[in-house]
Amino acid sequence: MHLLVASVFVLLYTVPASVNAFSSAPVIVPEVHPAHVIKITQLVQAALGDEGDASNNRYAFARDAVTNFQENDESPPSNELVYGELSVEVLATILDAVGVQENDVFLDIGSGDGALVLGASLLYADTTNNGDDASDGGNAMKMCYGVDIVPGLVDRSISHADNLHRILQDNESFLQQSQANIELLLGDIHQPDSQLQNILEETTIAVCFATTWSAENAVGTSLQGRKLPKLSKALSRGLSSGCRVVIIDGKLDEEDGFHWMGDLRIFCPDTAPYSV
Questions:
Q1: Cα 259 → chain centroid
Q2: What is the pTM of this model?
Q3: In what order do the strands lie in the sheet with 7-14?
Q4: Environment class of 120 (CB within 10 Å of its CB; exposed 0-12, middle 13-18, buried 19+)
Q5: Which of 73, 88, 121, 204 has the fewest CB neighbours in a 10 Å radius?
């Protein structure tokens, strides 16, 4: 058996914040322990129904939701709606590289089945049980949002979030108390309504898996040269200063006010053959 090994190019930007000589530097929380990443991965997989080869069936149903949406004449071009997602392990690598801070607000742009939102809500949850089951655990993530333009995917992601809630309630009561709040909503990042605009202003870490965002949105075919002018302008209008923006397999325009902070290449077979 030949394993398709793919890589994703992760680019980090910030929306520059005004400088305050009296403000203290933000405190970065510790990186996620590998054992905790494995545990959260298993919990999210259970919520998604990814047992054995079931993930292949889930992807097929997700693609069906996209296909049904494409029957709408006002839907985006089909090659902007190829379904794909990153693993919780890759998300943990990205967030640790970015540097999560206390009270961060996470947004997954194009959240699909909700896997990254579910993962982000638990990765930085306090796992130290002090014996008082009535106390709430801490979490560096204050809130986790996901937005998608496909109604069927939003419905699926809400169902998966409900599954995770039941799993935690039955088996991980303390972790449930530490989980960040989740909200999954239908919306168009390029034309946000008032609710989505408020979320954009609240967001401190935004992640977008942009590999398939190509038609009329990307410039250039090379993964390292793909600019996303439409997305760049939309985010520059909506995000607040100081927000960290992670774009996978795409680039924002610094002329829109973004400051490039660095890039990261992650090898992950779960994105093949789209990120190569």
A1: 20
A2: 0.86
A3: 181-186, 141-148, 104-109, 205-209, 244-248, 7-14, 259-267
A4: buried
A5: 73
The count of residues in the chain is 276
- Distance (Å, whole) CA 242 – CA 59: 35
In tens, the pLDDT along 158-210 reads 999 999 999 999 988 888 899 999 999 999 999 999 999 999 999 999 999 87
Closest listed residue to residue 230, CA positions, set 246, 209, 253, 255: 253
Q: In 3D, which of 62, 115, 58, 59 has the Cα closest to residue 92?
A: 115
In this structure, are residues 80 and 2 in contact, taking their beta carbons and an 8 Å threshold?
A: no
DSSP for the chain, please give it. ------EEEEEEEE-PPPP-TTPPPPPBPPPPPHHHHHHHHHHHHHHHT--TTHHHHHHHHHHHHHHHHHTSTTSPPGGG-------HHHHHHHHHHH--BTTEEEEEET-TTSHHHHHHHHHTB-----S-TTSPPPBSEEEEEEEES-HHHHHHHHHHHHHHHHHHHHH-HHHHHHPPEEEEEE--TTS--HHHHHHHHH-SEEEEE-TT--TTT-B-SSTTT-B-HHHHHHHHHHSPTT-EEEEES-B--GGGT-EEEEEEEEE-GGGTTT--
